[in-house]
Design a protein that fits this description.
Layout lengths: L2 H8 L2 H6 L2 E5 L3 E7 L13 H16 L6 E10 L8 E12 L2 E9 L5 E11 L2
Antiparallel strand pairs: 1-2, 2-4, 3-6, 4-5, 5-6
Length: 129
């Protein structure tokens, strides 16, 4: 993780609180992981979609903010395709798909430890400068 990414993570209390770790971050790709705990489970005993969304959004934030001006999400959508269970280790890999001026489109694939796709996320970011 680059120095700026390490500094950003040190201030990211939400990700730290949820157990999200950022293991790679550069302008082209970021990787974030999270092990699903009982505190992430909804009333049906599976990982709440909001936590999966947050994991994917975190990976996107680290792509968007590695090596350039500060950028923020302007829109994001997610498709949940398989459940994540307590004990699963989820890995979100974000890749920048398009960058045009201050605008970027990023795709994130969230998979469990067996490589099963749990969710597919697409987010858009806008740099402040």
């Amino acid at each position: 993780m680059a120095d700026t990414s390490a500094e950003m993570y040190s201030k990211d209390r939400a990700s730290q609180f949820l157990g999200i770790q950022v293991t790679e971050a550069n302008p082209d790709q970021a990787v974030a992981t999270m092990t699903v705990t009982a505190n992430h489970a909804n009333g049906l005993g599976v990982c709440h979609g909001g936590f999966i969304f947050t994991l994917a959004d975190t990976a996107m934030a680290f792509v968007a903010n590695s090596g350039g001006p500060t950028a923020f999400a302007t829109n994001a959508e997610i498709d949940f395709v398989n459940p994540a269970m307590v004990g699963d280790k989820l890995t979100a890999v974000c890749a920048r798909v398009v960058e045009r001026g201050r605008f970027a489109v990023n795709d994130v694939s969230v998979k469990n430890q067996d490589g099963l796709v749990v969710a597919v996320f697409r987010g858009r970011t806008l740099a402040t400068q």
